[in-house]
User: Fold these one by one.
Assistant:
Number 1:
Amino acid sequence: MEAGAAAPEPPSVRQQAVLDAVLALMVEGGDQLTMDAVARRASCSKETLYKWYGDRDGLLTATVRWQASRVHAGREAVQTLDGTTLREHLQDFAVSWLTVITSRTSVALNRIAVAHAGSRKSNLGGIVLANGRFAIGERVKPVLEAGRAAGLLAFADSESAFRTFFGLVGRDIQIRLLLGEALDLDADEIRRDADRAVDQFLALYGQANT
Amino acid sequence: MEAGAAAPEPPSVRQQAVLDAVLALMVEGGDQLTMDAVARRASCSKETLYKWYGDRDGLLTATVRWQASRVHAGREAVQTLDGTTLREHLQDFAVSWLTVITSRTSVALNRIAVAHAGSRKSNLGGIVLANGRFAIGERVKPVLEAGRAAGLLAFADSESAFRTFFGLVGRDIQIRLLLGEALDLDADEIRRDADRAVDQFLALYGQANT
DNA sequence: TATCGAGCGTACCGTACGGTACGGTACTGG
DNA sequence: CCAGTACCGTACCGTACGGTACGCTCGATA
C-alpha cells in the first residue's frame, strides 16, 4: 500500500495546535469541519491556513499524518520469546489496537477518510490504512514469526495469520462504531476482549507448549 | 439497535428506477451524488424527487432501504443438522456475507452511511447496521444454537460466538475496502476464504464429532 | 373532446463554503 | 527608528448545491 508521498516536515508547535483544532472539530461532528470553523477554533486566519496547507485537502492530510505520528508506539525488538512473553506481546497489541479504534478521535478520523475514499483525489484512506491496519501488521508479524521460530506457533503465511488475529481482535467493533453505534468499551472490557482474542488465536495457531 | 422508523410502503417500479439511479451514482463516486445528478440520471424532475422523498436525506434513506430489501435472502428454517449441514450453512453465510461486503454497491453505500453517521440527523448508519451486521447475526445465531443443541458446537453465548464468526469471516476486508483499497476478490477466493473461516470457527467452537 | 393530475425540463433563489484580498498589529533584525 | 515578516481578523468573491416555482406534455377519465 502506497502511503501517498512522505510527510514533508514536522509541524511547528503552532501548527500542531491548528491540527489539534481540526481533530477536535472532527470529533464534534464531521459536518462542521469548515475552514472558517477551523480558523475560528484555532484563532488563526484562513489565509494562514491556506499558506501552510495549500487547500482543504492539504489540511486534512496534515491532520491525519499528525494523528498518526502520535499513535505510533516505538517498535521494540523481540529477543527472548517464550509462551508467556508471546502471549503478553499479543495481548499488548490487541489492547492497544482496540483502544485506538474505539477512541473518538480514531472513529472521527476514519469517518472522514472513508468519506474521502468515495470521491477520489488525495487519498486520506491510503494514509489511514498505512498508519493503522498496515502499520500494526508490520509490528505484529515479526512477533508471530519469532513465535514460530521458537516453536510456539505454527502457520505457513504470517500475513494470513496476522489477518486472522486482526479479525479475532476487532470482530464487528470498528464497523459498528463507524456506522454510528454508541458502544463505548472501558479499559476492563477491552482487556477481556483482548484476552479472548489472544486465547482464540493461540488455540488456532499455538503449538502444544503454550 | 433501532432501525429508525419502518419503511412506509414499497417503492413503485418508477421509484425503484430512481433509487437504482441513486445507487449507480453512489458507485461512480460519492461526491457526484447531487439532486440534479439524480434527476438527470433518472430522467425525472427534481420536483418529483422532493415530492416523493421529501428531501435529500429521505432519498438516501429510501435508497438504503431499497438496497437492503434486495439483499435479504429468505431465512429458511433449520431442521435436521449434522456436521455436514452445519458446515454448509456456515459456509453459505460466509460466502454470501463476503460477496455482499465486497460488492461495489455495498462499499459505496457503507461509505455514504459512515459519512452520514459523522454528522448526526437521520441515521443511515443505523439502517445499514440493522440490515447488514445485525440481520445476518439474527440469521446465523439460530443455526449456531441448533448446532449446539445437536451437540456439534459448544459455546455459552451465541451472540459472542457469532461475533467471533463475523470476525473470522470479514477480518480486515471491509475496512480496507471502505478506505479505498482496490482488492477485488473473485468467487473462488471468496469461497476459499469462507472455507478457512468456517474451519477456524469449528476449530474453536466445534465438538469432537465434526 | 374537455378536464385534470402526474410528472418532465428548466429556470430560479438563498446560502454555505472554499478560496482570496487587504488592512492592522506585533515582533525581529539592522 | 525603520523595514520586513508573520499573522490575525474581516470582508469579499464565485460557485455549487439544496430546495422551489412554473410552464409544458401526456395519458386517463368522463
Number 2:
Amino acid sequence: MAQRDTGTEQLIKDTAKRIFFSVGKLHATTQDIADAAGVNRTLVNYYFRSRDILFEQVAEEARAEMSEQLESVFSAKIEFKEKVQRLITVFMDQAIKFPYREMYVVTAFKRTDKTVPDEKKNRIKKFLAEIKEEMELGRIKKMDPRQFLMNLFSLMAYPLITTCINKSLYNINDKEYLKLMQERKQLIFDMIYQ
Amino acid sequence: MAQRDTGTEQLIKDTAKRIFFSVGKLHATTQDIADAAGVNRTLVNYYFRSRDILFEQVAEEARAEMSEQLESVFSAKIEFKEKVQRLITVFMDQAIKFPYREMYVVTAFKRTDKTVPDEKKNRIKKFLAEIKEEMELGRIKKMDPRQFLMNLFSLMAYPLITTCINKSLYNINDKEYLKLMQERKQLIFDMIYQ
DNA sequence: TTGTAGTTTAACAAAAATGTTAAACATAAT
DNA sequence: ATTATGTTTAACATTTTTGTTAAACTACAA
C-alpha cells in the first residue's frame, strides 16, 4: 500500500504547537489552526479524528520533548553547579521558543484533572536531594529545597509568559526582549548560586 | 423608581472573578458562571448584555483593585527597602487569592491587542528609577532594573500560577501549599534584597 | 491506461455557546 | 388592592464550533 505522506499531519501538529505554545492562543479553534496551517479544517478530523485527540497528542509530544531534554541534564554525571548552569540554558531556550507551554499544561491540568507523571516526580525527587546536599555543603543558601526549585523555575518561566505585557510596558521590540532573556541566563545563575 | 438590587449583578461578577482568577478556568462559558453562581444564565445577558461586556468589566475591576493597592505602596513616603517589603506582602496576598489573574490578563492581551495603561507605565517608570538609585547606593546588586523587577514579580507570581502542578508534584494539600507561599514572602525579600 | 488507495474538498449534520423575547414573578409605592 | 417597575424564567433563535459523509482529486503501480 502506498504511504504517500504529504506532510500534512505533521504540519497540523507543528502549527497547533506554534499557536498554543509560541503564540499563546490557548483557546484556538480547529479552524484557527487549519487557517494558520493553510489547510482545510476537515483534515484535522481526517488525521486526528477529533479536536481533543489533536490537542492531547500535541501536549504529549511537547511533554516528551521537554522530558528528554531535561533528562539529559539531570542524569549527566557532572557537578551540581554545572547541572544548574545547563538546566538554565536548556530550559530558557525551550521557554523562549515555547513560552506558553507551561500555561497550556496548567489549563489542561484543570480541565482534565491530570496528575504529574511519575517520571517527572522521580526526576524532581532526585534533584531535590541533590539540592539539599549542596545546601549542607554550604555551597548554596539553606532553604526548603522546594522553594529553591520554585525560585529557579519562576525566574526562568515567568518573564516569557508575560512577554507581551513586558514589551508593551517597556516599549521594546522582539529583538530587544530576546536580548533581555538571553542576559537572564547568567543573571538567574548568579541569583540562585551564591 | 424602585432600585431593588437583589445583589445578583454583583454575585455574577464575583463568581466570574472567582472562576477566572481563583479557580483558573480561563475559558469558562456563561453557563459555567451562571451555574457556579446558582442563577439563570439569561441573567448574564440581562445585567451585562453580552458575555464580552461581563468579562471586560470583571477584568477592569480586578485591574483597578490591584492598581489601587499597588499605588498605596508605591506612593508611600517610605524607604525603598520598606517599599519592597510591603509590595511583596500586598502582591502575594492578592496572588494567593487570585493566582490566575495575571494569566487571564495575558490571554486577554493576545485576543484584544490591548496595551498597558499609562497609569501602570508611569508607576513602573518611577519605581525603576528608585531601583536604579538603590543600586547606585550599593544597597542592592547592580543589574538592569527591568531584570530586577522581572525577578521580583516572577518569584511572587509563578509559584501561584503553577499551584495545581506543584501540589501534585510534591504531594501536598492546600494548607501546606499556602504555608509554603506564606514562607515565600520573607524568602523572596531575602533573595532580592542583599 | 486503468485501478487502487491515500488525500483533499465541499456540503451537510450535530452540538455547544450566545443572544433575544415575552411572559411570569416579586416588591415597593400609590 | 392595584399599579408600576425591576427581576427572573423558559422558550426560542442565532451563531460558532465541531464532526461526518460522499465525491473529487492525485500519485503510484500493475
